[in-house]
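U., I forgot to send this yesterday:
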Amino acid sequence: MSFFGLDVFLLAVAYDLLLGEPPARIHPVVWIGKLIAYLRARARPTRINGLALAIVVITSTTLTGHLLVVALGQFPLLPLLISAYLLKSTFSIRCLLKVSADIGRMIDQDINQARKMLPALVGRETASLTRAQATSAVIESLSENYVDSILSPIFYYLLFSPIGLGLEAALAFKAISTMDSMVGYRTPDLKELGFAGARLDDLANFIPARLSILLMALASPARAGDVIKAALKYHSATPSPNSGWPMAACAGSLGIRLEKPGFYVLLEEGREPGTSDVPRALRLMQVTIALTLAASLLILIFSLS
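Result:
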């Protein structure tokens, strides 16, 4: 492995923290979404077509990223800058924290406006949520999206960087994650077509979701036992095989009851969440993310030695 992998990672993180998300018209994930929407509109709702859609989307995404970097190889610095830009597009630290904080403050100020803002984070019906339920939704999404939007793409970048395919692996994960968010639903029209994308997403997040509880435990050492205990007890309460791990770990760290009405309850013995718990959850996730980035840097540096 060369310094290029470390430099790409540092630049990608700096871009995310300083600038946030690029404009939609040049955002790689937006273009992945357009490809998925184009194929979905033309595919019959069968599992074989869903598998074909997944293969095309993953292959197109990784090959486009790879070939773009290779094509710019003759220009100084451009491969590094484009690689960092593409890697940054696979994770979203600043946006996740900002949106969560904005909605958390709005729950206190104007619950009706907060309900309108919540679909930016969650997929549930929000019009009738109480303040406690809206607060729970923000904290659930924050902890779950830490895995989907930060830990998992970085995990695959680290895993495949030693063989020079870190960027391609992160892009492949993002393609899978975007497919799951667009077609991975159990509705009549998507149940079969989205099956492959949803199962691939479950598989891709399997290790990072479980790794997240260790990072959250390290981020809250005084309650590390509660983090692990809650994750082990309540991880299976959610329909997803992965989302329950970080959400239950977060509930354990904060000592609060998280609930998606009609679907699941995490840390049933915890107290009802209040709006003051959103800043607490943000601090927990900020420390967890900082530990994730620090550990990633150490792994990349160690790989160079």
